[in-house]
Amino acid sequence: MKGYRHTHVNDYQDPDGNMRLGFKIFSPADVIYFNQMVALAQQNGTPLNDIYAIMVSGKGNYQIRFTGNPNQIKTLYANTKTEYNEMYIDYFNKHSKRSDEMNFLKFIEEMMYVKGVTLVKINSDGTTVKKTLNSTKTDVSETPCQ
């Protein structure tokens, strides 16, 4: 498998009347699964730039790609997917004034210690923009993809 696409649902009210909030960007579990795919691709001799994950949400469509070197492929994590998701919710709440893109990029770097994963926004006109932290890690830089 070289890639997958999935959705993150919009916020909704469950049958018990509780509001369920969903992430409109990749989750920690998505990043862990993606890195597992990258590691398997490396073991099987598949070019790492062929591996991708796409996430579709009401706020935008995104893709992650591995653009680092093979030594940056992360397969061991200090926390479980569930623990990371709880940390992610707290992180987003604490930094609610920042964009989802900024929170995602900073969380995977600062909390998960993931390197080499690039976030790409897929615009409605089909163009794509690479999203990275700027040199001071205080904002998101955008670079149009070719």
**Unreliably modeled segments:** none
Over all CA atoms, what is the radius of gyration?
15 Å
Overall 3D form: globular
Determine the N-to-C terminus distance: 24 Å
- What is the chain-wise order of helices and strands? EEEHEEHHEEE
- Number of helices in the DSSP assignment: 3
Number of strands: 8
- Name the quaternary structure: single chain
Helix percent band: 25-40%
- The average pLDDT score comes to 91
Secondary-structure class: alpha+beta
Q: Largest sheet, order of strands side by side?
A: 1-4-5-6-7-8
Largest sheet, in brief, is: 6 strands, mixed
Q: How much strand content do the residues show?
A: 25-35%
Give a written overview of the molecule.
The chain is of the alpha+beta class and 146 residues long. It is built from three helices and eight strands. It starts with a strand and ends with a strand.
